[in-house]
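One such given next:

>
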Amino acid sequence: MQYRFYALISRMRYITRWGLMRNTFSENIQEHSHMVAVLAHSLALIQRDILGEAADPERCATAALFHDASEILTGDLATPIKYYNPEIKTAYKQIERVSGEKLLGMLPAELQESYRPYILEDDPDTNRIVKAADKLSAHIKCIEELKAGNAEFESAAKQTHQALVEMQLPALDWFMAHCLDSFNLNLDQLE
């Protein structure tokens, strides 16, 4: 028997994000998931090693790699639509869950339970960090687009920044205070 899970995961590179916005550079969910994994790992390390609170950086990074996996089957629904009202948000969460279950069914039975918490995002502590990293990745995309002269992302930058502040996650606040401004620098300034 052939299991199709991994072949479908490799197709994440074909799902483009920010479909309603003019982009200076496109971003697919595979690239996005990698950045979210890097950010989730760093937020969990900050929470554990700097702030002295419990966190599992490896679990957060792994969950972030798969946080948008259901979009392989659903596509990327634009944020203004996804969160337009509570009914649409609830319905879309159900669609994501059904898609996640379908993906899990494409794995050998022996692996399904190991992947379940990552595909279905059912660990609240990990999920909180991954959601913060996801929003942080979106905000960084906005910063990079603005830096490239794309004013199309001005409102999104303000909205994502406000959402980050409202998350009230100390590790995220630390990252924003100590790391976020670096994304405004060019290569020479980074060195």
The mean pLDDT is 92. The chain is about 65% helix and 0% strand.
